[in-house]
Amino acid sequence: MSQREFEFVELYVAVYRLASEWDIPDTVAEGIIRGALRGGQVYTRGKGRYDIELRDISKEIGATLMLGSLISLDFDDVAIDWSDLLEHGRPLVPPLYEPFVSAAKAHAAGDETKAINFIAEKLGTNHNIKREDAWSACRKEFPTLSERGFRTRIWPQARQSAGLEAVAPPGRKSKR
Fold it and tell me: Are residues 109 and 83 in the same domain?
């Protein structure tokens, strides 16, 4: 069983990133994040007053937020898992902003399809292109794509589109 990879984002960064990615005002993004934190389902880590190391504070953080803000009275170094926020924050989008979020997500999905075709074409001419090189080329062409999205969706699908296995066999490639 593979362990899930987390992408932790500080709360104030999450506000601006969510607002930018979903094309919504910062205040709406902040409200969505506050609601997600209060729901306790978004993996969140931080340090309490007497904690030495970061720990899971997902079930505790919501009750410690100052009224109308994302500042916790009891925790420092608070960071939220980005994937969880996207998943659990989506149902919290106010109906007025739903069309903006849907359009932004559809645009991102369209970029992924274009990126898959772009990388598949590169793999068609060179089957031995390294994933890092493909990521560099893809990032130049589609700057809004995330590296995680590239690794988990774009790269495997592009390999399959080029007639290769989704995951290359392990080991060094032969020079022949």
Answer: no
